Amino acid sequence: MIHLNNIRKSYRIGSRKLEVLKGIDLTIAAGEFVSIMGSSGSGKSTLLNVLGILDDYDEGLYELDGVPIRNLKPDQAAKYRNAFIGFVFQSFNLLPFKNAVENVALPLYYKGIGRKERNRKALEYLGRVGLADWADHLPSEMSGGQNQRVAIARALVSQPKVILADEPTGALDSQTSLEIMELFEAVNREGISVLIVTHEDEVARRTKRLIRLRDGLIDHHAALHETTLHA
After folding, report:
1. Bridge partners for 87 per DSSP
2. CB neighbour class for 120 (10 Å; exposed up to 12, middle 13-18, buried from 19)
3. 46 alpha-carbon distance from chain centroid
4. Nearest residue to 24 via CA among 52, 54, 50
5. Pairing of strands 162-166, 85-89
6. Are 28 and 2 in contact (CB under 8 A)?
7. Which pLDDT score is estimated for 2?
8. Helix (H, G, I), strand (E, B) or coil at 59
9. In the chain, what is the straight-line distance between the N-terminal and C-terminal CA atoms, in Å?
10. CA nearest 98: which of 132, 142, 54?
11. Rounded to whole angstroms, how far apart are CA atoms 110 and 112?
12. Euclidean distance between CA atoms 58 and 124, whole angstroms
């Protein structure tokens, strides 16, 4: 599903070049449930942006479902994102002036699906995350956990093959975090690959594989240790 070979990414800061990813080799099979950990500045968010086709890379090869992802025009990048990827963010990224069903339906609008069918599917997916009764509520009228459930329903509604979640439990209390992780587990059981960037050990423990980044590279020594923890 996802194959990275020697991915390098740097940013220019004034006259200085800051190398963030320094040669990432990574393969994630269809249906895997993976967490990515690492200290601040280790390259987690940059890696997620590359995987999500939100950012290009300088060197190497990224293949998504056998398709090389490199130097895509904005409309091509959007097409692949819509076809393959659902995003879940720590800050939910819901539109404050749209209610739950409208927020969930948004990816279908970009796919050119008519309003009636959009709303039908959005209601179906709200039901799947336990929020059918909250369809008409604005984000400001719901709790953080409810907003994250709406965000997960929005990520799922276009039936992606991969969910990329960036600190999805970071703004939630421990009980709500547990409920959100149970939701991700249910999503993964349907065969959808789930990648979660997290700093929380409890979240990482619930995934089936842990990748640690250190200074822009995968820490393979940590990976060997983590394998025994996850066994």
Report:
1. 164
2. middle
3. 12
4. 50
5. parallel
6. yes
7. 95
8. strand
9. 23
10. 142
11. 5
12. 41
Instruction: Record the tokens describing residue 25, joined without a space.
Output: 């080799």
Residue 136 in tokens? 């008409």
pLDDT in tens, 150-178: 999 999 998 999 999 999 998 889 999 99
H-type helices in the chain, by residue range? 44-51, 74-84, 100-110, 115-128, 144-156, 174-189, 201-205, 220-230
Partner residues linked to 213 by β-bridges: 218
Around Cβ 163, how many Cβ atoms within 10 Å?
22
Mean pLDDT of 69-86: 89
In the sheet where 59-64 sits, what is the strand order?
A: 16-28, 2-13, 59-64, 67-68
Instruction: Give the three-state DSSP class for 20.
Output: strand
Report pTM.
0.90
What amino acid is encoded at 141 in this protein? E
Q: What is the DSSP letter of 141?
A: G
The helix/strand/coil state of 10 is: strand
Looking at the predicted structure, is the pLDDT value of residue 9 above 70?
A: yes
The pLDDT of residue 40 is 85
pLDDT at 222: 60
Whether the pLDDT of residue 225 is over 50: the answer is: no
As a residue count, the chain comes to: 231
Name the burial class of residue 62, with classes exposed (0-12), middle (13-18) and buried (19+) by CB atoms within 10 angstroms of its CB: buried
Give CA separation, 123 vs 113, 129, 134, 136, 161, in Å.
15, 10, 10, 10, 21
